[in-house]
Hints:
This protein has about 240 residues and is of the alpha+beta class. Helices cover about 35% and strands about 15% of the residues.
Amino acid sequence: MTAHYRYRTRRLIAVLTAIAGLVGIVIAQPGSYAPETEASSSIKPTSADSNSLLATAVLEQLEVKGRAPKTGYERTKFYSGWPNINGCSLRQRIIKRELGDTAVLADDQCTVISGEFDEPYTGSHLVFYQKSDLSSGLQIDHVVALSDAWQKGAQYFDEDVRYQIATDPLNLLAVNSKANQGKSDGDAATWLPSNKAFRCQYIARQISVKYKYHLWVTQAEHDAMAKVLQTCPNEPAVGIEL
């Protein structure tokens, strides 16, 4: 870890801790997020009674500056494939997490072969009758696109940190393939889910990932995020507990 990276970590923690002290709360430090279990839903209920720091507060702690060049970006700079978690592919675990109790597994008890869920980016209820339906209809999206992460800090990190960004369940959602392709490597200033009911949770998750991994935002991105959160000021950050 570089001295600059350690400094940014201490500075962000100090700022948030100072804010928290005003209302008598304790904030979990960046990197302390416990990965979601495969059974937990990625779509969290919004509640003013949540035990999480508000996404609006976390957004204001993100550094705002211009996008760095994309030069040198390759997906393999982050990871070369889905890792196995206790014998099962992370991809399959994310799909099972989203499909929940409807997920039917193959004999290997890892591969999801059918199921259904309310897809977050489009809001459509999707039903998958066989494995080929899942293969063509679902993709695992990096909520903060890896290319975007590269241009906003990750290119200066070591390989271990980039690997964490690419494989952290906080940054992964199973979504409609066409919607994911439409998003590409866009940030909040250039792409938002067509499902407006999910936009607050989507932005809160992006903010949480960027805070956790010390990634910055552009001014246009910050303003787009703030505009969405104006409609849901009590939206909690994800994995940043009070």
